[in-house]
């Protein structure tokens, strides 16, 4: 029995924000959803905020270990305000990561270092709208010390891979 109609409704995935929704990313009550999404859709998840534990990067790592075929986009380089911890936990995980809410909180050189550490093939551009002005986010993105190939991957080529 199929309880979810994600693909029947033309949706590509599910976005979760554990910190504002008040649950742990690795809550067992979500396992049925994660299992369903494997091979059918993607999980887009807010990650990291040192003020809360709901979305700590280790929780996403737990989910990815249990559901290895789950396509994941981890927001905020995998751990807003917990960038180093996220990198240590997710650098070899295979998930995609976006750079939303990163360029204004980290120096451009540090953002570029994370991008290269994860691999530019895994990074997506994001603005975190409506929190931030997309024009400012695009400007900050263009000011990162990246190669033209890295910019192209992050701006659109990786998104094409993700959505097929």
Walk me through the structure:
The chain is α/β, with parallel strands linked by helices. It has a single domain (7-163), classed as TIM Barrel, CATH 3.20.20. 40% of the residues lie in helices and 10% in strands. The chain has a five-stranded parallel β-sheet with strand order 1-2-3-4-5. The longest helix is centred in the C-terminal third of the chain and has 16 residues, at 148-163.
Q: Which terms would index this structure?
A:
TIM Barrel; globular; five-stranded parallel sheet; 7 helices; alpha/beta
Secondary structure blueprint with pairings:
Layout lengths: L12 E4 L1 H4 L9 H7 L4 E4 L11 H10 L4 E4 L8 H8 L5 E3 L9 H11 L4 E2 L9 H9 L5 H16 L1
Parallel strand pairs: 1-2, 2-3, 3-4, 4-5
Count of DSSP helices?
Answer: 7
CA(first)-CA(last) distance: 27 Å
Question: Poorly predicted ranges (pLDDT <50, ≥5 residues)?
Answer: none
Sheet with most strands: strand arrangement: 1-2-3-4-5
What structural class should be given to the helix and strand makeup? alpha/beta
Helix-strand pattern, N to C? EHHEHEHEHEHH
- Fourth-tier CATH superfamily name: Metal-dependent hydrolases
Helix content: 25-40%
What overall geometry do the principal axes of the alpha carbons give? globular
- How much of the sequence lies in strands comes to 5-15%
Q: Under CATH, the topology is which? A: TIM Barrel
Main sheet summary: 5 strands, parallel
């Amino acid at each position: 029995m199929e309880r979810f109609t994600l693909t029947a409704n033309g949706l590509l995935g599910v976005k979760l924000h554990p910190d504002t929704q008040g649950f742990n990313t690795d809550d067992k009550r979500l396992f049925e959803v994660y299992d369903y999404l494997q091979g059918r859709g993607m999980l887009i998840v807010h990650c990291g905020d040192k003020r809360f534990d709901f979305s700590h990067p280790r929780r996403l790592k737990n989910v990815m270990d249990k559901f290895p075929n789950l396509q994941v986009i981890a927001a905020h380089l995998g751990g807003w305000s917990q960038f180093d911890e996220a990198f240590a936990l997710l650098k070899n995980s295979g998930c995609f990561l976006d750079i939303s809410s990163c360029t204004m909180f980290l120096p451009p050189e540090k953002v570029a270092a994370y991008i290269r550490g994860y691999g530019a093939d895994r990074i997506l551009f994001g603005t975190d709208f409506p929190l931030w002005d997309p024009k400012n986010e695009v400007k900050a993105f263009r000011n990162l010390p990246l190669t033209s190939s890295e910019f192209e991957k992050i701006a659109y080529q990786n998104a094409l891979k993700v959505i097929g």
